[in-house]
Amino acid sequence: MANGGKRPGAGRPKGAVSGHTKEALIFKEELIRRVLEEKGPIIEALIGKARSGDVQALREINDRLLGKPHQQVGLDETINALTVRWEGEK
């Protein structure tokens, strides 16, 4: 196994970004730029949908303004477990 294992210089250099990641970043930047240019009509459309009773639009507005609700988990509650015992053929 002459070439096996960790070799100096093998693999992607630290800090290098893959081509796919670069494309995704370019897409994200362009999308952000376009949304910022069109934010007025986008906001108006969202408010219009909420006014007409679109529940998803109402939820989106509430989540953006008030924050998403957090589900509370009580750690002091007792959990009743079900124990199953299998008795096979003898």
Give a structural overview.
The protein has 90 residues and is an all-alpha fold. The chain has a domain of 30 residues. It is built from 3 helices and no strands. Helix 2 crosses helix 3.
Radius of gyration in whole Å, from Cα?
27 Å
Topology pattern, helix = H, strand = E? HHH
**What's the overall geometry?**
flat
How much of the residues is beta strand, in percent? under 5%
Mean pLDDT: 84
**Which runs of at least 5 residues are low in confidence (pLDDT < 50)?**
none
Q: Helix count?
A: 3
Helix content: 40-55%
Distance between termini?
51 Å
Number of strands: 0
Q: What about the largest sheet?
A: none
Structural class: mainly alpha
SSE topology:
Layout (H helix, E strand, L loop, with lengths): L18 H19 L1 H13 L3 H12 L24
